[in-house]
């Protein structure tokens, strides 16, 4: 058993051999170096046999090793250390509890360091708070003590878990210890240095250090430490910050956190950081400025110094709105948004900052644009002016108040005092002697009677203000009525005091004038602010269709905010974002739906009825004057509203029916909007309309249908929403019997409209025929009767005659009958290919399902066709062939439709005889609809339709024909393929409406791969410069979409350049450059660039004019040429070197070299410079002279090496112009030969004298090449 010892911790190593107390453990014997190895071996054996308690016996050995540490062998020291570690580990294992217990119980015997550490820190805090300075001489605490304590604290802060939530108590204790050391023990400078070092090496300590510094500044009153740390950071150069990397992020986070905690303390020292606005921590500095402005320098109670500091900081922010770095510009806008949201921006800065923000909407950086939109939305939401920001509504009040201000200023001039020539002092000296005598006389006792006599003159006892009394005395003095002046003064002393007014006379007028001036200035600022908002709306509306999702979302939110504040033209943005409900991006779609719910579907009201009324009013206002596309988009949102369960639905439907039926006085536009909204609700719930079908027929399709065909048309659109075509039903088709009241109303309304000339009958008729085919049983029979009835009515009208304008009415009636024929033909084909075909498939499916059920359960054998799925495919092909045969053989043989076809051809081919515009338009449209029936009809009349397209003087006819030909191209592509150039020719039509229609149709055909992209696409490129902005934007959209197809524009570019640079076209150089700049922006791949360089260089050989050379050179300069492209440019030197004397060729090629030189590597840069010298030499001296000089140089110095690309030697350059190298394949590089033009026979329209001549293309003009297009067969009509 070992005896009990007291082990006292030594202050130094020598204390272990000094005995100072009873039972104190001390070293008994210090061994020599020679004795140590043997004792170490004994130590090892004792550790194995006795365990860790052997240290009590062999502690002298371990001490001796430590004592001779400098001289003892390394192996002895290592063995000793290993023995001590083993003993330590064995001691720990003895402290652990035995058994399978919980972790908490298992560790009960161990030292709980976390709790002990916190306890030690608290004890240390209490100790340091005592006055322990007397423990040192001269009451000066030694630096070693301060370092010992603080180093422990800083070491604890380096723990990676110190910033965790669970370490908060330890973290706070460390901060308090260091705070005491900073305040009482002169540790401020050391703390500053240590904080900087911690931030440089431990990025996660930014928030901890910020909290510590804030605590030292606020709780311990050491505010100077904030300035010291800021100066330390501010004195670091940009190079140092750039090298530190993570330290910069830590500094930024630290300063940002600190500005949030103690912003007022940072104001005096913030100037030291302003130098870093151009460096690495600029975003942090901007954030700090915002914190100071929001939390300290805000409000109206600032003194002059604070106001000057605020203005200086705002000017600094304003300067960096146009910073060179995009992230800084974005950060500044975000800082301004925070300031505006906190209402800390002075009113005088609103207009200026608003104007700068609107300018940032055109920034190249998407992030900056997004931040600008957010700031503008914040300006509107927190504007100090008005809840309605319409400049139109502000104009009249501003003009009224300005007129009032002018009147007040004019009247104020009448009260101005006239400046006297004699000064008041001179006048007083002149009257003073006489005035003294009068005062003495008045003060004598006998003067009271005279005073009474003067009461009438002075005004008696009438109450006056002090100012009025003074003015009266002054007036008496000027008039030398001194006695009266004395009496007035004496009466003031005798009279009781009178209440004084705040301002009287002219002072009141001046106060009102100032108020009026402030009001006018306020209205001016409000109007200016509203104009800036309206200006921004036009820009942001265009951002709704950007490809960046976040920008689109911010634009949507801005439009919502602007609409809520009644900004002028804000409804345009709300309508423009409506098509985004079809966006494939779910985020954008949800943003638009939420925006419309917020604006229109969440009304405010006292009760459900009031809310429903408001909701209907909002939607009705949106639908008034809305386009068809807008209505379709709104239909998606409204149908979704009615699909979800809501307490408002029943009330909304009730209000809509009341408006439509006319129970309450309603405008015609609102009635139409109501019935359309009912149709949108019917998409979600069919019974909304189906249960009230009789009401719809009686109100809109009854006897008064002719009074409002637009209401009748919209009613038919609503009824169509209950059909299977709209609802996409897969069950038994929903149809009404032929004798239903609805169809009798429709037949009667169509027939009555034939004898009238209502311009809206046409659209009503089209919707009526569509509804008949959608909803009626046997719609072909109904329409056949309708055609027959219409023809009889027209014949009766013709036979009656007698009126002067009867001829015009007959032509109008004939046009309407032909329109009806075309609509019936179109929807008859659609009915066959959609409804009949779908019904055949449904019945076949039911039959197959029935047969499948009837099969025996053990019938496992199946034919090969069934396994391969060919049975269903064969049956479907049979159905398609059946429908096709009906269209080709039965639709136009022996029925009412076939009877009108010769008449249509006659009217279209004889425009001289049938010159009525309505008749011509209807006939051409109907003929194109007939041509959709079968290929035979299309072939027979295609030449006539293209003749109408080229020769018709009516733009509406040409535009309609283009649309019809686009549909025919989809349906019969092989027939229309030879006529493709005729379609492209309409892109240069003189009418803007025709060009617009042509570009829209061709865009659809090309992008959907119905029509092959050929060289004629150069006509679309010309439209990039169209004077109509809408046409130019459509052309730009065409190329944007076309660029998404692999190599499409790359393959077309050489041919487009050749066509546009053709001398016969005569395109201006500026226009050519603008078009090429846009097209070459789509060439982004290096291989494409390299190939185009070679192709364009080869085109120099076939170019014949100087302008063509210049165009090719400009095209080359627009490419982003890289090293490989530059190599190709050098290899093709022979193609263009003889043309370098032309400035139009030399300058673009020189610009290519200049751009390459700026970003080239040193070795490659030398080649570029040599190429530049070569270009300049040829341009100034001529190719022949340069060749001779080079030849002489080569002969004189055979050792020199030429860094230029090798060139073949030529004797005379001109003899080789225009000849290509034999090894080149010119099939892909040379512009195709110009085809020989043939004069086309003149085509004249028939006149009144030549009624029977047809204006049809001659047979020679008909294209003979009918190359079939490889594509799947299209037999169904597309809509």
From TrEMBL:
Biased composition (Basic and acidic residues): 841-858
Biased composition range(s): Basic residues: 1207-1221
Any GO MF annotation of the entry: histone binding
Domain of life: Eukaryota
Gene Ontology BP term (one): meiotic chromosome condensation
Family, as annotated: Belongs to the CND1 (condensin subunit 1) family.
Function: Regulatory subunit of the condensin complex, a complex required for conversion of interphase chromatin into mitotic-like condense chromosomes. The condensin complex probably introduces positive supercoils into relaxed DNA in the presence of type I topoisomerases and converts nicked DNA into positive knotted forms in the presence of type II topoisomerases.
Protein name from the UniProt record: Condensin complex subunit 1
UniProt keyword Protein transport present: no
């Amino acid at each position: 058993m070992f005896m009990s010892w007291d082990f006292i911790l030594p202050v130094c190593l020598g204390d272990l051999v000094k005995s100072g107390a009873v039972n104190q453990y001390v070293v008994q014997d210090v061994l020599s170096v020679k004795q140590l190895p043997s004792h170490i071996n004994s130590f090892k054996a004792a550790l194995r046999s006795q365990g860790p308690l052997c240290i009590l016996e062999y502690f002298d050995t371990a001490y001796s090793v430590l004592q001779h540490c400098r001289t003892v062998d390394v192996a002895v020291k290592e063995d000793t250390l290993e023995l001590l570690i083993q003993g330590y580990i064995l001691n720990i294992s003895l402290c652990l509890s035995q058994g399978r217990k919980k972790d908490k119980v298992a560790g009960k015997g161990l030292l709980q360091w976390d709790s002990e550490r916190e306890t030690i820190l608290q004890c240390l805090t209490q100790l340091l708070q005592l006055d322990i300075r007397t423990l040192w001489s001269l009451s000066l605490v030694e630096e070693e003590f301060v370092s010992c304590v603080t180093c422990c604290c800083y070491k604890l802060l380096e723990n990676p878990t110190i910033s965790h939530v669970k370490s908060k108590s330890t973290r706070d204790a460390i901060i308090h210890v260091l705070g005491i050391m900073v305040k009482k023990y002169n540790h401020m400078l050391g703390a500053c240095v240590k904080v900087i070092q911690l931030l440089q090496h431990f990025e996660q300590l930014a928030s901890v250090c910020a909290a510590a510094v804030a605590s030292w500044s606020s709780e311990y009153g050491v505010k100077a430490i904030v300035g010291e740390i800021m100066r330390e950071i501010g004195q670091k150069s940009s190079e140092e910050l750039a090298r530190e990397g993570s330290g910069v992020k830590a500094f930024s986070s630290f300063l940002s956190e600190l500005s949030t905690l103690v912003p007022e303390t940072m104001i005096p020292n913030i100037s030291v950081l302003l130098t870093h606005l151009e460096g690495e921590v600029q975003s942090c500095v901007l954030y700090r400025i915002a914190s100071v402005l929001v939390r300290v320098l805000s409000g109206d109670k600032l003194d002059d110094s604070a106001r000057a500091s605020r203005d200086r900081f705002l000017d600094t922010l304003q300067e960096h709105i146009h910073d060179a770095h995009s992230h800084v510009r974005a950060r500044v806008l975000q800082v301004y948004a925070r300031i505006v949201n906190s209402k800390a921006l002075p009113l005088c800065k609103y207009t200026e900052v608003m104007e700068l923000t609107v300018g940032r909407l055109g920034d190249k950086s998407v992030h900056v644009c997004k931040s600008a939109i957010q700031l503008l939305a914040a300006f509107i939401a927190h504007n100090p002016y008005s809840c309605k920001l319409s400049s139109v509504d502000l104009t009249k009040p501003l003009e009224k108040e300005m007129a009032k201000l002018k009147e007040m200023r004019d009247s104020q001039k009448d009260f101005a005092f006239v400046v006297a020539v004699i000064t008041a002092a001179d006048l007083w000296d002149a009257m003073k002697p006489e005035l003294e005598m009068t005062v003495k006389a008045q003060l004598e006792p006998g003067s009271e009677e005279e005073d009474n006599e003067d009461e009438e003159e002075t005004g008696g006892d009438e109450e006056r203000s002090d100012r009025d009394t003074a003015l009266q005395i002054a007036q008496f003095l000027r008039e030398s009525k001194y006695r009266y002046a004395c009496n007035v003064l004496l009466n003031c002393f005798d009279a009781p005091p009178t209440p004084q007014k705040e301002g009287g006379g002219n002072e009141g007028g001046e106060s009102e004038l100032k108020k009026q001036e402030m009001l006018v200035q306020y209205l001016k600022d409000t109007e200016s602010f509203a104009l800036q908002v309206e200006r921004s709306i036009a820009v942001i509306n265009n951002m709704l269709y950007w490809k960046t999702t976040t920008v689109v979302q911010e634009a949507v939110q801005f439009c919502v905010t602007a609409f809520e504040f009644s900004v002028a033209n804000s409804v345009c943005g709300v309508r423009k974002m409506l098509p985004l409900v079809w966006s494939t991006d779910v985020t954008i779609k949800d943003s638009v739906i939420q925006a419309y719910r917020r604006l229109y579907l969440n009304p405010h009201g006292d009760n459900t009825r009031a809310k429903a009324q408001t909701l209907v009013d909002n939607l009705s206002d949106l639908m008034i004057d809305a386009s068809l596309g807008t209505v379709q988009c709104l239909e998606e949102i409204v149908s979704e509203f009615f699909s979800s369960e809501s307490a408002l639905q029943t009330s909304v439907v009730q209000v809509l029916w009341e408006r439509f039926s006319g129970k309450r006085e309603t405008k015609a536009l609102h009635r139409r909007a109501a019935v359309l909204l009912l149709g949108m609700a019917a998409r979600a719930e069919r019974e909304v309309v189906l249960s009230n079908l009789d009401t719809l027929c009686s109100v809109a399709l009854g006897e008064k249908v002719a009074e409002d065909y637009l209401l009748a048309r919209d009613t038919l659109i609503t009824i169509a929403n209950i059909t299977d075509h709209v609802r996409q039903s897969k069950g038994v088709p929903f149809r009404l019997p032929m004798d239903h009241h609805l169809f009798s109303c429709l037949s009667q309304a169509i027939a009555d409209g034939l004898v009238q000339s209502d311009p809206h009958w046409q659209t009503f008729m089209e919707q009526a025929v569509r509804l008949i085919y959608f909803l009626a049983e046997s719609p072909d029979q109904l329409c056949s009767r309708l055609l027959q009835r219409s023809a009889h009515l027209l014949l009766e009208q013709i036979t009656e005659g007698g009126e002067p304008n009867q001829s015009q009415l007959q032509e109008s009636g004939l046009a309407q009958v032909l329109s009806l024929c075309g609509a019936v033909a179109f929807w008859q084909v659609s009915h066959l290919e959609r409804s009949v075909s779908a019904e055949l498939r449904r019945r076949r499916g039911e039959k197959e399902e029935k047969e499948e059920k009837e099969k025996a359960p053990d019938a496992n054998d199946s034919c090969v066709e069934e396994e391969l799925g060919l049975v269903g495919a064969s049956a479907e092909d049979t159905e398609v062939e059946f429908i096709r045969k009906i269209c080709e053989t039965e639709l136009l043989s022996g029925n009412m439709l076939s009877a009108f076809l010769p008449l249509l051809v006659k009217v279209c081919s004889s425009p001289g005889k049938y010159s009525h515009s309505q008749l011509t338009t209807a006939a051409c449209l109907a003929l194109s609809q007939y041509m959709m029936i079968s290929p035979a009809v299309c072939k027979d009349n295609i030449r006539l339709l293209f003749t109408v397209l080229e020769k018709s003087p009516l733009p509406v006819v040409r535009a309609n024909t283009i649309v019809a030909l686009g549909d025919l191209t989809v349906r019969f592509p092989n027939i229309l393929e030879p006529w493709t150039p005729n379609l492209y020719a309409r892109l240069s039509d003189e009418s803007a409406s025709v060009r617009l229609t042509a570009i829209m149709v061709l865009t659809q055909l090309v992008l959907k791969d119905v029509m092959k992209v050929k060289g004629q696409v150069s006509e679309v490129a010309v439209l990039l410069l169209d004077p109509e902005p809408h046409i130019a934007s459509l052309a730009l959209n065409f190329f944007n979409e076309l660029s998404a197809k692999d190599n499409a524009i790359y393959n077309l570019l050489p041919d487009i350049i050749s066509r546009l640079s053709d001398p016969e076209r005569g395109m201006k150089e500026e226009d050519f450059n603008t078009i090429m700049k846009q097209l070459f922006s789509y060439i982004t791949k290096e291989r494409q660039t390299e190939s185009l360089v070679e192709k364009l260089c080869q085109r120099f050989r076939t170019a014949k004019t100087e302008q063509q050379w210049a165009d090719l050179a400009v095209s080359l300069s627009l490419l982003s040429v890289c090293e490989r492209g530059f190599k190709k440019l050098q290899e093709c030197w022979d193609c263009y070197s003889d043309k370098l004397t032309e400035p139009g060729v030399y300058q673009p090629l020189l610009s290519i070299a200049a751009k390459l030189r700026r970003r080239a590597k040193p070795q490659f840069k030398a080649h570029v410079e040599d190429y530049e010298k070569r270009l300049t030499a040829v341009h100034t001296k001529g190719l022949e002279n340069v060749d001779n000089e080079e030849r002489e140089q080569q002969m004189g110095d055979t050792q020199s090496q030429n860094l230029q690309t090798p060139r073949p030697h030529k004797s005379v350059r001109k003899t080789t112009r225009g000849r290509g190298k034999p090894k080149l394949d010119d099939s892909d590089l040379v512009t195709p030969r110009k085809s020989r033009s043939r004069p086309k026979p003149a085509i004249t329209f028939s006149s009144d004298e030549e009624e029977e001549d047809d204006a049809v293309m001659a047979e020679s003009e008909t294209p003979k090449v009918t190359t079939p297009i490889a594509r799947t067969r299209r037999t169904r009509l597309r809509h």
